[in-house]
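Structure ticket #2291
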Amino acid sequence: MREQPPHPNDQRRWLTPAEQETWQQFGLMMHRLPTALEAQLQQDAHLSYLEYYVLAGLSEQPGHRMRMSDLAVRANSEQSRLSHLISRLERRGLVRREPDPTNGRYTQAILTEGGYAHLADAAPGHVARVRDLVFDVLDSAELDTLRTAAKKINEKINLWEQETSPRKNTTPRPPQRDVTP
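Resolution: structure written out below.
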């Protein structure tokens, strides 16, 4: 976008040329990095990037299980989309669903032994691709800067989500009942 001369009454804060270049490079990276990671995962493990992310998320939980609603938040996915993804993973024997033993109104996704084995087989290639594309091209100071910037941006997004949709990133709660006699 060409730099437009500001109108005298224009109070908008336009991006400087340096900010514009940074934004363009950042946007290009956000688009290309998941595509490059998914290509490796598809080729080596027949998994999409989101499928891998969901399996990895389950592997990090106690008992390799998580409520579907919480997993949807973690995966930044609508519950219906996650349900379809879990169905595909179930057909492949990588996960199963069970009612939550602490509250049967919820369903848990559970990583199966086969799913864990598949993830363990896929992880070295994925980590190698992440290392190749991200960590090997940045020195330690650049990694510190990237980590700090990512944290700040994520914190700002979290704050914005809380202000605009207070229930978006909260654990679902059962409906409140009126207990007055």
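Closing remark: Strands lie at 65-67, 95-99, 107-111.
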